[in-house]
């Protein structure tokens, strides 16, 4: 079917409606802080405001109130099938929708993210390439999206990159400038010829350099998704069963974090690529963006990067990569062993045993508040 027969405006409206429905049903899964941050970024996208500009407070608050009222009206509704080119398709059947969009510059993304929230977007493709056996699709302008937005997602052998999400994520890091990440962030941007404090004070004058850095790092981050495709610890559909049965719990966040670490540290994954290509900037961003849960599970990498910033030694980084992979694999196998051993007694029993036997010995419960684990 020719893409010329597709009503793009209608598809955009349908996708956006499903985005609103998903947000209405799952906004409560975010902490208040993360919800407000995501709402602010969603507002910027809707009014076509770049990440480094801040909206007038009054306008933003009014928009948030209107959005919450919309959610009240939509709460409890199920996502609508998409009517595309005379066919009715399930909203999560992205491959079928994209088959009908073949020949156009549009790409439809759909999947279940943290907490099993359905997430959708419709965007314009600026680049397609084959990389390490994976089909990589980079989207620039987004015509429809929900409150959940990440720079990269993978479905099978397809990796979707979103330029706007990458720029938003890195700008939020600049704006927040946490003490634990400031030095690594400054190092990373310096590798791109950008001064962190000038970026913060005069973002408009650094626009082009900032966006080039975002695009370069997005290309590097593709190797996280490639690494994820190479991780062979989780057999069959066991991974999907764990995250779906434990949606929104500490076990889901822990399992996702362990798999992310394996994707980063395996041969062919993100850190392996960074080391081979000597991507110093990407090391800085990796340390700056490492969240508390990852720091506990993979404690070697941040100190190794901090030392690297003073004394560049790629062997030290390679040692940290290998150690991280071995520890991550052992944790994953331990998680699977306990979960499978108690799953027949019910998801709650399996969850409790994983927390007691796998998570608690790491000291995670003493260090983190569960509502902040995914942030």
Strand content: 5-15%
For the largest sheet, list the strands in their spatial order. 3-4-5-7-6
- Estimate percent helicity: 55-70%
Number of helices: 17
Largest sheet: 5 strands, mixed
The unreliable regions are none
Order of helices and strands: HHHEEHEEEEEHHHHHHHHHHHHH
How many domains, as an integer? 2
Number of strands: 7
Distance between the terminal alpha carbons, to the nearest Å? 42 Å
Decide which structural class fits the backbone. Answer: alpha+beta
Mean pLDDT: 94
Radius of gyration: 21 Å
Taken from the alpha-carbon principal axes, the silhouette is globular
Describe this structure in words.
It is a single chain. The strands form 2 sheets. Strands 3-4-5-7-6 form a 5-stranded mixed β-sheet, with helices on both faces. The chain folds into 2 domains: 3-163, no CATH class; 177-372, no CATH class. Helix 10 (250-265) packs antiparallel against helix 15 (314-342). The chain has 375 residues and is of the alpha+beta class. The chain is 58% helix and 13% strand. The longest helix is centred in the last third of the chain and has 29 residues, at 314-342. The protein has helices at 8-26, 32-46, 57-74, 94-100, 163-176, 182-191, 196-201, 207-230, 238-245, 250-265, 270-277, 280-289, 292-297, 301-310, 314-342, 347-359, 364-367, and strands at 82-84, 87-89, 106-112, 118-131, 134-145, 152-155, 158-162.
Write the layout of secondary structure elements.
Elements: H1 8-26, H2 32-46, H3 57-74, E1 82-84, E2 87-89, H4 94-100, E3 106-112, E4 118-131, E5 134-145, E6 152-155, E7 158-162, H5 163-176, H6 182-191, H7 196-201, H8 207-230, H9 238-245, H10 250-265, H11 270-277, H12 280-289, H13 292-297, H14 301-310, H15 314-342, H16 347-359, H17 364-367
Parallel strand pairs: 5-7
Antiparallel strand pairs: 1-2, 3-4, 4-5, 6-7
Helix pairs in contact: 1-3, 5-8, 6-12, 8-10, 8-11, 9-10, 10-15, 12-14, 14-15, 15-16
